[in-house]
Amino acid sequence: MVLFSEDQIHETKMRGRIEVICGSMFSGKTEELIRRLKRAKYAKQRVEIFKPAIDVRYSEENVVSHDSNTIASTPIDSSASILLFTSEIDVVGIDEAQFFDDGLIDVCNQLANNGVRVIIAGLDMDFKGKPFGPMPGLCAIADEVSKVHAICMKCGQLASFSHRTVKSDKQVLLGETAEYEPLCRTCYNRAIEEDKNNL
Ligand SMILES: Nc1ncnc2c1ncn2[C@@H]1O[C@H](COP(=O)(O)OP(=O)(O)O)[C@@H](O)[C@H]1O
Ligand SMILES: Cc1cn([C@H]2C[C@H](O)[C@@H](COP(=O)(O)O)O2)c(=O)[nH]c1=O
Ligand SMILES: [Zn+2]
């Protein structure tokens, strides 16, 4: 699998395609998204970046990684708004895609069919280990999916799961290290068993 995109044709030539960067929290999705978008800007491409307006964790306007890398973005409430901002655009970046409606799948297909390179970052699974929002559909239509991993906070192996450490059953609960920890499959299953026993 090609983990990081360094393909000259994909990066600098006008050709519609969909790239998905997915994984658990703290796996480097936003950093990788920002890296690809900054490279597109160096290549003098016209770039537009979107995030869900509900994601006000680090900034209302910018896309910001856990390591404080940042890039300016347009916060929007609905995936349909993306089409209003993307005439004359070469590359579209979307962060926290799991929070968008399912209409995002059609929007991304339309953009790619019109020659736009679409780069999407999002959580593939919620805290219950279930597929999150439009992410499975986006993975299905993507030309390339990069699954990235955090480091398990309990054993140091690669982590694919986001364990919620506070009591809440809502699917959407914004948070960082005070609310979530990335865990590998073994440590996640153990933590879920412990959570059940502590109810
Ligand atoms: N357990 C962890 N494993 C890996 N990176 C971590 C961990 N905890 C904190 N980080 C930090 O998170 C950064 C990745 O942040 P970010 O790109 O925002 O991730 P994501 O968008 O996937 O949540 C890493 O560079 C590192 O500084
Ligand atoms: C697992 C999980 C996460 N969230 C929230 C928590 C954060 O605000 C974002 C994920 O951000 P990151 O850039 O991937 O670290 O999503 C949630 O609402 N529900 C969940 O199940
Ligand atoms: Zn582990």
Summarize the structure.
By secondary structure, this protein is α/β, with parallel strands linked by helices. The chain is 27% helix and 24% strand. The strands form four sheets. Strands 5-2-6-7-1-8 form a six-stranded parallel β-sheet, with helices on both faces. Strands 3-4 form a two-stranded antiparallel sheet.
Please provide a written account of the structure:
By secondary structure, this protein is an alpha/beta fold. The protein has a single domain, classed as 3-Layer(aba) Sandwich (Rossmann fold), CATH 3.40.50.300. Helices cover 27% and strands 24% of the residues. The chain is built from six helices and twelve strands. The strands form four sheets. The chain has a six-stranded parallel β-sheet with strand order 5-2-6-7-1-8, with helices on both faces. A hairpin with a 5-residue loop joins β3 and β4. The model has no long low-confidence stretch (mean pLDDT 94). This is Thymidine kinase. Homotetramer. InterPro entries: P-loop_NTPase (IPR027417), Thymidine_kinase (IPR001267).
